[in-house]
Amino acid sequence: MKPCKFGTCIDGRNNYICDCDENYGGKNCSVELTGCITSPCKNDGSCIPYLNLEDETEHLFNCTCKHGFYGPSCEIVSTMSLVDESLITVKAYREEGYDIQLRFRTTLPSGVLAFGTTVDNANSYILELVNGQLNLHSSLLNKWEGVFIGSKLNDSKWHKVFVAINSSHLVLSANDEQTIYPINFNSYEGSNASHVSFPVTYLGGYENTPFYLRHLTNHVTPTTFIGCMEDVVINSHWVLPDQQSNEFVNLTNIEIGCKRDEQCDPNPCHSKGLCTDLWYKFSCQCQRPHLAPTCKYSIVAATF
């Protein structure tokens, strides 16, 4: 006798386990799963039905959300737009170690994605775009120029970033590329193994940058990030654009979603001018004798 009605029986010691066919569950794979019949997952999320292990009459479901959505039913938008005056402050404390992951898109070659610091500013890191590459500077790294990874990350497409820091090493990844560096606690005075949690994180900009971090970035003031972010998770804490500012998260000048128009299609630059997409605006590189901003007019020729 086969105990598994809609599944494969796996023999065990004095027992058996049923590997159920799709859409069936229960001890003997005899219960048709109905948790997804009502399409509970919003925004094209994928639904997986299952049964309560203690009560096979209770039908449940899990949603796997697409990028840009979050929640039990993928009902919450995680995508947000950042402009010149945007800043997100997140206080997400973890006793040991730190990690942040996010997705972003922009057309600008440079801008601060994240800046993390300890309460006393003993240690910090700054994650930014520099000429289309991802660059991470930190007082924990014995590298003057910081760590670079990726290329052409300002192509207006979505790119995934992940940073993890613990007492022994730092992990930095951009899309499918990853690099690992050892932590150096002797690079800067005050650095020690207890200062790798970074309980305060700024997204899109920074506040009160420590002197040594300005020194690391060759005295060039980092620019704020202009573009969109989504699926931001810091120390397992989701950062969502529609949440109310509180003692843990403060959002300044943030818009929900990622709405924008292509700035160079069609080309607004006349007379074969070269258009550069600056996310919410454009600039034209004009051929002489034509003049900016749109190369529509030219210098009037004169004979002396």
Describe what is shown at a glance.
The chain is mainly β.
Topology of helices and strands:
Elements: E1 7-12, E2 15-20, E3 24-25, E4 31-32, E5 46-52, E6 55-64, E7 69-70, E8 76-77, E9 80-91, E10 98-105, E11 111-117, E12 124-130, E13 133-138, E14 147-149, E15 159-165, E16 169-174, E17 177-182, E18 200-203, H1 211-216, E19 227-234, E20 237-239, E21 249-256, E22 274-277, E23 282-285, E24 290-291, E25 297-298
Antiparallel strand pairs: 1-2, 3-4, 5-6, 7-8, 9-18, 9-19, 9-21, 10-15, 10-19, 11-12, 11-18, 12-13, 13-14, 15-16, 16-17, 19-20, 22-23, 24-25
Task: Please provide a written account of the structure.
This protein is mostly beta strands and 304 residues long. The protein is 2% helix and 44% strand. It is built from 1 helix and 25 strands. The chain has one helix at 211-216, and strands spanning 7-12, 15-20, 24-25, 31-32, 46-52, 55-64, 69-70, 76-77, 80-91, 98-105, 111-117, 124-130, 133-138, 147-149, 159-165, 169-174, 177-182, 200-203, 227-234, 237-239, 249-256, 274-277, 282-285, 290-291, 297-298. The strands form 7 sheets. Strands 9, 10, 11, 12, 13, 14, 15, 16, 17, 18, 19, 20 and 21 form a 13-stranded antiparallel beta sheet that branches. A two-stranded antiparallel ribbon has the order 1-2. The longest helix has 6 residues, at 211-216. The N and C termini lie far apart (108 Å). The model is unreliable at 187-193 and 211-219 (pLDDT under 50).
